[in-house]
């Protein structure tokens, strides 16, 4: 069942995001593999030094959450998780996705129709080799946690559906209590 919350998406955000994507696609400007949370014009609620991030994350988690890497498909057990519950950002424990909005697609990542309102932000990313062939100059929307700036995945069209394609490694799943 698809549910979309209109309250989490404004026309201003739509036009701003569309314009940024169009400019990046035309100019080829893209922020590929840049550490999450390095923008100087936004202050995240949770900030940590590089040493603090490395102490709390293993190398694989650090590469995805802080450097923007993408996990190989079907390597996270969360891609097939079907229990009710909440998916939290591994970097700061903010609830970012609900299981009821999850979509199982045979691509190997964790897909959602949308995020918890006001939990994620979007940026511009370049080519993602793990997604396969992409046109020259292609830029896609990158999904970040709004509280700590951690890279979670991408917002893109897959099998005709516009979805959040998220690295399971970037999430902690909290099953719903019985």
Short description:
With 178 residues, the chain is an alpha+beta fold.
The value of Rg in angstroms is 15 Å
The total domain count is 1
Query: How far is the N terminus from the C terminus?
Result: 22 Å
CATH class: Mainly Beta
Order of helices and strands: HHHEEEEEEEEE
Question: How would a crystallographer describe the biggest sheet?
Answer: 6 strands, antiparallel
Determine the CATH superfamily: Peptide methionine sulfoxide reductase
Overall helicity: 10-25%
CATH names the topology as Metal Binding Protein, Guanine Nucleotide Exchange Factor, Chain A
Keywords:
single chain; 178 residues; alpha+beta; Metal Binding Protein, Guanine Nucleotide Exchange Factor, Chain A; six-stranded antiparallel β-sheet; 3 helices; 9 strands
Q: Would you kindly provide a written description of the structure presented here, covering whatever features stand out?
A:
By secondary structure, the chain is α+β, with helices and mostly antiparallel strands. The protein is 17% helix and 25% strand. The chain contains 3 helices and 9 strands, in the order αααβββββββββ. A hairpin with a 6-residue loop joins β3 (102-103) and β4 (110-112). The chain starts with 10 loop residues before the first helix and ends with a strand.
């Amino acid at each position: 069942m698809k549910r979309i919350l209109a309250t989490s998406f404004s026309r201003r955000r739509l036009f701003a995001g569309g314009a940024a994507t169009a400019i990046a696609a035309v100019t080829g400007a893209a922020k590929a593999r840049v550490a999450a949370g390095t923008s100087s014009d936004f202050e995240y609620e949770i900030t940590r030094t590089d040493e603090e991030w490395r102490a709390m994350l293993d190398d694989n988690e650090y590469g995805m959450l802080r450097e923007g890497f993408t996990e190989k498909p079907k390597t996270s057990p969360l891609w097939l998780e079907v229990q009710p519950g909440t998916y939290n950002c591994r970097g700061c424990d903010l609830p970012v996705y609900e299981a009821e909005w999850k979509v199982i697609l045979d691509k190997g990542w964790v897909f959602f129709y949308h995020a918890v309102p006001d939990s994620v932000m979007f940026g511009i990313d370049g080519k993602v080799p793990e997604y396969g062939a992409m046109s020259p100059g292609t830029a896609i929307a990158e999904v970040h946690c709004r509280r700590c700036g951690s890279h979670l995945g991408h917002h893109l069209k897959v099998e005709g559906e516009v979805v959040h394609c998220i690295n399971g490694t970037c999430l902690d799943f909290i099953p719903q209590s019985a």
